Amino acid sequence: MTSLKEQMQSDLTSAMKSEDELTKATLRMALAAVTNAEVSGKQARQLSDDEVVSVLAGEAKKRREAAQSYDDAGAPERAARERAELGVLERYLPQQLTDAELDAMVDDAVRQAAESGQTGPAAMGSVMKILQPLTRGRADGAAVAARVRAALGS
């Protein structure tokens, strides 16, 4: 079984052979981000697939934010490029949660926190601790936090 990073490297080779400039540039950027994450810290190490997904989720978030900024600045061509790069990155990310799925997960996590005696805004940390492993790479952290705040009434 190949790792996610190995799959990306293989796809980069294919993109180079087929002269797919968008995929080639995006995968180079993504692999550089993964490599930077591997060598940051005290000791260089190979990232797990979950850690690679976290890096790619961060890169995808950057593309979404950049696209929005370019739209706001009246640069639709650059926004389109960012969205195209986002499309390449999304090939390697898990399927994103739907609003209904995320709402159900938030409700369940709030219920679990309430069962352990934590309610209201003070339960925010406990609820997020339950949700983060379940939503990593599948939902934007800020969106999850906003839904938790709404569910907790804070």
The gist of it:
This protein has 154 residues and is mainly alpha-helical. It has helices at residues 4-17, 21-39, 49-72, 76-90, 99-115, 124-135, 141-152.
Describe this structure in words.
The longest helix has 24 residues, at 49-72. This protein is mostly helical. It has 2 domains: 4-90, Orthogonal Bundle (Hypothetical Protein Yqey, Chain: A, domain1), CATH 1.10.1510; 99-152, Orthogonal Bundle (Arc Repressor Mutant, subunit A). Helix 1 runs antiparallel to helix 2 and helix 3 runs antiparallel to helix 4 (76-90). It contains 7 helices and no strands.
Shape descriptor reads globular
CATH homologous superfamily (4th level) name of the largest domain: Uncharacterised protein YqeY/AIM41, N-terminal domain
- Quote the average pLDDT: 91
* Contiguous uncertain segments of 5+ residues: none
Count every beta strand, where a strand is a DSSP E run of 2 or more residues: 0
- The computed structural class is mainly alpha
Task: Count helical runs.
Answer: 7
What portion of the residues fall into strands of 2 or more residues? under 5%
Secondary structure elements and their pairing?
Layout: H1 4-17, H2 21-39, H3 49-72, H4 76-90, H5 99-115, H6 124-135, H7 141-152
Helix pairs in contact: 1-2, 2-3, 2-4, 3-4, 5-6, 5-7, 6-7
List keywords for this structure.
single chain, 154 residues, mainly alpha, Hypothetical Protein Yqey, Chain: A, domain1, Arc Repressor Mutant, subunit A, 0% strand, globular
